[in-house]
Write a structure and sequence with these properties.
alpha+beta; ATP-grasp domain-containing protein; six-stranded antiparallel β-sheet; globular; YheC/D; Rossmann fold; 3 domains; D-amino Acid Aminotransferase, Chain A, domain 1
Length: about 350
């Protein structure tokens, strides 16, 4: 019986580790379990091994003696789990050949996502105030007393800074350096040239800092995984909370944040009925974001959204992650949801193989 292959496109580093099963938090076992449920066989690819001209690619496929490198026809459907620098057109070239590549791009500029969402009047109220450049920084300092400076591109919280007013005269800049928090006093009339240069280089956005709800004195936001599955429709696979470390302002797990079950922190921060309402509202907002973005981002099918919730119950969109780090569910003690986050994309892959239209 002919195998129905589904390509899993990995970055070179993760791909090198496939024979030994050392792919970090990309769980090969979960891919294989999920693919098997839909009658599929996963094959692990890297972009440089794919030859669109010939129609063939090298790939790793698991057999009785472990992973074997073989040459196969380019799979008809590929799930992109790799991150490429801006300007790389590898997945677009595959799509132009008729290969159905979902999550064609896995990293988007934060300014690009903000711009697309701001065109939707219903989502505009869920977006934090945002500017760019040194002039934008000064405007934001006049309007808000607490700001987040974040790289336009990048992930896991790297490079994020907080700029906050300490009193009528002075401001304070907080940032992580070698795993510890550094605090620097800032004179607003003489902003450091290094900071202004960084803003004017176009690599940073300036946003109002959302006064996040707290659990045990620690701010938290919600990671909501939204994916297409069998049938091609969007659904919320699950959500968990990311707690900032004590005294910190960045909730990313890789920067010291803690993944916990959403119900745990929501029940600490709000009465039971309100906690349930906010959980459902975060899921509804995440679905609305996915539906808004799909019309402008071809192949979008698997995203993780960071949703902020204020102490008075306002919901804010914070960030879209095109390569959702699914291990947060595992760390939060939600192993079945972790498995579901692999199953749903495999259901979508089978749907596409059966002739379903890319949405």
């Amino acid at each position: 019986m002919e195998q129905k292959l589904i390509g899993i496109l990995l970055n070179a580093a993760a791909h090198r580790g496939v024979p030994q099963g050392r792919t970090g938090w990309e769980s090969l076992a979960r891919y294989e379990e999920a693919a098997d449920a839909y009658g599929l066989t996963p094959c692990y690819l890297k972009l440089s091994d794919i030859d669109p001209a010939s129609g063939y690619s090298a790939a790793y496929i698991k057999g009785p003696q472990g992973y074997k490198r073989v040459v196969i026809p380019i799979p008809q459907v590929i799930h992109n789990r790799a991150i490429y620098p801006p300007g790389n057109t590898g997945t677009q070239r595959l799509a132009a050949r008729g290969v159905k590549v979902f999550n064609r791009r896995s990293r988007y500029g934060k300014d690009e996502i903000h711009r697309l969402l701001s065109l939707n009047p219903e989502l505009l109220r869920h977006l934090p105030g945002t500017e760019a450049g040194s002039k934008g920084l000064r405007r934001m300092m006049e309007q808000y007393s607490d700001l987040i400076l974040k790289p336009r591109r990048g992930s896991i919280g790297k490079g994020i800074m907080r700029l906050r007013r300490e009193d009528q005269e002075g401001w304070v800049l907080d940032y992580l350096y070698k795993g510890r928090m550094v605090t620097v006093n800032i004179d607003p009339s003489k902003l450091p040239h290094a900071l202004l240069r960084r803003m004017d280089a176009g690599s940073y956005l300036i946003q109002e800092r959302i006064p996040l709800a707290e659990a045990g004195g620690r701010p938290f936001d919600l990671r909501v995984t939204v994916q297409r599955g069998w049938g091609g429709d969007w659904a919320v696979t699950g959500l968990f909370a990311k707690l900032a470390p004590p005294g910190g302002f960045v909730s990313n797990i890789a920067r010291g944040g803690e993944a916990v079950q959403a119900s745990y922190v929501l029940d600490q921060a709000f009465p039971a009925r309100a906690a349930a309402h906010y959980r459902m509202s975060a899921a509804s907002l995440s679905l609305a974001v996915a539906h808004c973005l799909e019309s402008s981002l071809p192949g979008l099918a698997d995203i993780g959204l960071d949703i902020g919730l204020t102490r008075d119950g306002q919901l804010f969109f914070i960030e879209c992650n095109g390569r959702d780090q699914r291990y947060g569910f595992y760390k939060a003690g939600l192993p079945e949801v972790w498995k579901d986050s692999y199953r749903r994309p495999m259901g979508y892959a089978r749907y596409l193989l059966e002739g379903g239209a890319e949405r």
